[in-house]
Design brief:
286 residues, alpha/beta
Length: 286
């Protein structure tokens, strides 16, 4: 049985309070989701902080996702919300994002011009840890304005940054105080949104293999030579064999095997995936 996952470090409480205080200074919000796990990276608690501000949902890391991400984009757009697929390492995504933000502020800009002045519009950039918020800030700024990393919790403070035509409020990743779904919590663990140090990575690796066996068995066959998907432990050992992680005496190095599997998954070496199906989450209040 999978172990319960829970993670809400103290700095997140302070960050959410700071975000709420600065909300009135913002014209809108860029809510960054991970295109591989849009439902898991949707933090309902942030909606309260955003208030009634216009929201652009950005399905980031779309280069690592398959067509399931586009289904989520359609779901969110059908709810009347702004939504884009994005690869924050790609300049074309930056241009599309700039156009969408300009569209969101079009009426305010026209009113300002009617009154004879121009102004810079401000957006809060928010979301779950490790969805690429700071990379999005750098995409809009055209250079490395925000600190980035592949570990959850790189950004710890709320701060304003001048990025091209906009001022962006770069914020730390924030989790809900408790996970309503352990399935979605595991998805966050797979993509690196939860600090690996608090996880049983071998348990997480087994759960990931089970989900991939159901959704993407062909990927497991191609990457690790797996043909029997009925036993998670056997699949785990196949990963170790394929990666050469076998100790003296024929014992498997399960710890390194877990690290190798998660690293392969997070970097897209296994294949493009979307762990969730939009139809299953149609009732989410984006």
């Amino acid at each position: 049985m999978a172990k319960t996952i829970q993670w809400f470090p103290g700095h997140m409480t302070r960050a959410m309070r700071d975000m709420e205080e600065k909300r009135t200074l913002c014209d809108g919000v860029i809510c960054v989701l991970d295109a591989r796990a849009p439902a898991a990276t949707f933090n309902q608690n942030l909606q309260k902080i955003f208030g009634g501000k216009p929201i652009l949902y950005l399905l980031n890391k779309a280069d690592l996702a398959d067509g399931g991400a586009e289904e989520f984009r359609k779901l969110i757009a059908d709810k009347g919300k702004h939504c884009l697929l994005c690869n924050a390492a790609d300049a074309a995504s930056g241009r599309a994002l700039t156009r969408e933000l300009a569209k969101m502020t079009e009426e305010k800009r026209a009113r300002a011009q009617d009154k004879g002045f121009s102004r810079t519009f401000r957006f809060m950039v928010a979301g779950i840890p490790n969805t690429g918020k700071s990379t999005v800030v750098n995409l809009l700024g055209g250079r490395h304005r925000a600190k980035t990393g592949d570990k959850a919790g790189v950004t710890r403070d709320v701060r304003w940054l001048k990025c091209g035509a906009f001022d962006l409020l770069d914020t730390p990743g924030t989790m809900p105080p408790a996970f309503s779904s352990q399935l979605l919590a595991r998805h966050l663990a797979y993509i690196g949104s939860i600090n690996d140090d608090i996880l049983d990575k071998e348990d997480i690796a087994l759960e990931l293999l089970g989900e991939l066996a159901e959704m993407y068995p062909g990927y497991l066959s191609e990457r690790y030579g797996i043909s029997d998907f009925s036993d998670k432990t056997a699949m785990y050992e196949a990963v170790c064999r394929r990666r050469g992680l076998v100790l003296k005496g024929g014992e498997y190095d399960y710890e390194r095997g877990a690290n190798a599997l998660l690293d392969d998954f997070r970097k897209g070496r296994i294949g493009r995936v979307c762990l969730e199906r939009a139809a299953d989450y149609a009732d989410l209040s984006f």
